[in-house]
Amino acid sequence: SPYAPFDQRWHLRQEYKVHSQRTALAQQLARFILLYGLANLLLSPFIFIWQVLNLFYGYTELVRREPGLLGSRRWSNYGRLYLRHFNELDHSLNQRLNRGYKPAVSYMSSFVNYGVIETAK
C-alpha cells in the first residue's frame, strides 16, 4: 500500500530512513490509521448484520436441503470407551459402531421435529 512504511521486499522505505522526515511520516501514518479505523467503526454494524444474515440463511438452506445433517450424531469418547470390548482394536470398534448407524438413523427419523421444519421453511 502507498501508506505502508515497508516496500514489496519488506525493507524500510528510504524516506523513513531520513531522520528529519520521521515525525511527519509518523503523523501521516497515524492519520491514515485513524481514518481507516473510523471507516471500519462506521461500517462494522452493517458488516455484522450482513454476517449474521449470511450465517442464518446459509444454515437454513443447509437444514432445508439436508435435514439430518444439522443433527448428525457422533459417539463421544466416553461412549466409545464404554462400548469397547476388552483389547478390541480401533478398526473393529469403528466397524461395529458403523454397523449401528443405519438402524439408529431410521429410529431417530421416526420422530418429527416440527420446530426444525418450520425454521427450514
From TrEMBL:
It comes from the Eukaryota. One of its GO terms (biological process) is lipid transport. Its main location: membrane. Keywords: Autophagy, Lipid transport, Membrane, Transmembrane, Transmembrane helix, Transport. It is a multi-pass membrane protein. It is found in: Preautophagosomal structure membrane. The chain crosses the membrane at residues 33-57. Pfam families: ATG9 (PF04109). GO terms for cellular component: autophagosome; phagophore assembly site membrane. InterPro entries: Autophagy-rel_prot_9. PANTHER family: APG9 AUTOPHAGY 9, AUTOPHAGY-RELATED PROTEIN 9. Belongs to the ATG9 family. Phospholipid scramblase involved in autophagy. Cycles between the preautophagosomal structure/phagophore assembly site (PAS) and the cytoplasmic vesicle pool and supplies membrane for the growing autophagosome. Lipid scramblase activity plays a key role in preautophagosomal structure/phagophore assembly by distributing the phospholipids that arrive through ATG2 from the cytoplasmic to the luminal leaflet of the bilayer, thereby driving autophagosomal membrane expansion. This is Autophagy-related protein 9. It comes from Rotaria magnacalcarata.
